[in-house]
Amino acid sequence: MTSPITLAIALRHQAEGVYCLEAAAELLIAHQTWLRRADFTSEFIQIGPGLIDQRPMAIVDWPAAITTLQAGYLPCSGGEHRILLIAASLAERIPVDLSEVLTGLDEANLDLIAATVLHAGGHRPLGRP
Fold first, then answer.
1. d(CA 81, CA 97)
2. 45/125 Cα distance (integer angstroms)
3. Per-residue pLDDT of the chain (129 residues; tens, 9 = 90+)
């Protein structure tokens, strides 16, 4: 299994410069669950060298991940389920019902979502280029 740190770096490289992709990547990284799950990373994330500078790039197959999640073949908690749906919606425009996914999230996850929305809108957190 590829380490979560390597996956995080590769996701950031792939998303660089596209706010919604950056926000989705940062949400997965900050949530600290999905990038540690071999059933998710080995099945739905591919890593390869970038075309220009050979930096590692990671691509998530969001439609396949969400289809598998919705079919019940990617078991997880309700919060983990909601986080993955929100990340997929930002990255791939997969529809999500905000009134459904925001209800029931704890304060820590709501804080992550608030930061994610700000990032998607172009307001990167301090310290991040």
1. 13
2. 25
3. 799 999 999 999 999 999 999 999 999 999 999 999 999 999 999 999 988 899 999 999 999 999 999 999 999 999 999 999 999 999 999 999 999 999 989 999 999 999 999 999 998 765 455
Partners of 45 in the β-ladder: 60
Neighbours of 47 (CB within 10 A): 17
What is the DSSP code (8-state) at residue 60? E
% helix, strand, coil for the chain, step of 5? 60, 10, 30
| 80 contacts 33 by C-beta, under 8 angstroms | yes
